[in-house]
Write a structure and sequence with these properties.
Length: 126
């Protein structure tokens, strides 16, 4: 899994890349591999606000639907409209073109509730 130091992970298998007070959010390679091919992504509207761990959307695979949980409290600033036409980008490039939303982070102190890449790896290997 190729990541950088400013990416954090939730136990609910979302990641957030922090750049100043903006966070880019997606699902982890582990989550997309467990779900299988993503066929539909339901994303929120720009301007919607969510608390940490609140459901902000869902992904649909061939045989299941899974909720998406917000890693940090924030306001949606952008959605990845490419996923509406090509949801398999989540499978192909989860950290690049497969990102889902960008948020304005409301409380950076909530980072303490997230996992480093190393801790996330340990969590999924259990």
């Amino acid at each position: 899994m190729e990541t950088s130091n400013n990416i954090y992970f939730s136990k609910e298998h979302t990641w957030i890349k922090i750049e100043n007070e903006t966070g880019t959010v997606g699902i982890t390679p582990f989550a997309q591999s467990e779900l299988g091919e993503i066929v539909y992504v339901d994303l929120p509207n720009i301007g919607d606000e969510f608390k940490q761990d609140e459901v902000f959307g869902s992904v649909e695979a061939l045989k299941t639907v899974s909720d998406l949980f917000m890693p940090l409290m924030g306001e949606v600033m952008a959605i990845n409209e490419d996923l509406l036409e090509n949801p398999t980008l989540v499978n192909e490039k989860p950290f690049d073109e497969g990102w889902m939303i960008k948020i304005k982070i409301k409380d950076l102190e909530e980072l303490s509730n997230l996992l480093s890449e190393e801790d996330y790896q340990k969590n999924i290997e259990k």
